[in-house]
Amino acid sequence: MALVTAGRRFVQVTLREFSRRSTAAASWGAWRTAERCFSAGTPPLRSDNKVTVNFINRDGEKITVKASPGDSLLDVVINEDLDFDGFGACEGTLACSTCHLIFDEDVYKKLGPVTDEEMDMLDLAYGLTETSRLGCQICLTKSLDGMVARVPESVADIRQSKDGSA
Ligand code: FES
Prior knowledge:
Layout: H1 2-38, E1 51-56, E2 62-67, H2 73-79, E3 100-103, H3 105-108, H4 116-122, E4 132-134, E5 147-150, H5 158-163
Parallel strand pairs: 1-5
Antiparallel strand pairs: 1-2, 3-4, 3-5
The structure holds FE2/S2 (inorganic) cluster.
The site of FE2/S2 (inorganic) cluster (FES) has 14 residues, from loops.
């Protein structure tokens, strides 16, 4: 009986620790993105200081929204409640590549450097192009006003591939 109780206690402690670490990892990834966006020289936010972003969805439909400098493109999709199936599955923690977006070359050149972590995840994206980036890693600046971001035809979520569910 004591052995069963000890086993249950071990499982409870292990699950609690796993949950705590998972939450911490997700928070850390989101914090890094927020920190990078903030340090990209974002000017103070004002209501007339919006950036126009044009998304082309999988059906070829153009969706134009206004967003704040400093927001990531994942923030924009979430804030505007845009229905891009499967987009942003890992909530910006660089663990899925479902936020893959394709840009025109002139816009791509303005997006800032690609980190090694983003490059690793981009390699797993469906339909990768020379001007692909992950939307959760793109911080809006006024210089991106009027940008076009194309949502690829499909998404690849590495997390599903790892557990065999896709
Ligand atoms: S939302 Fe998962 S990598 Fe961007």
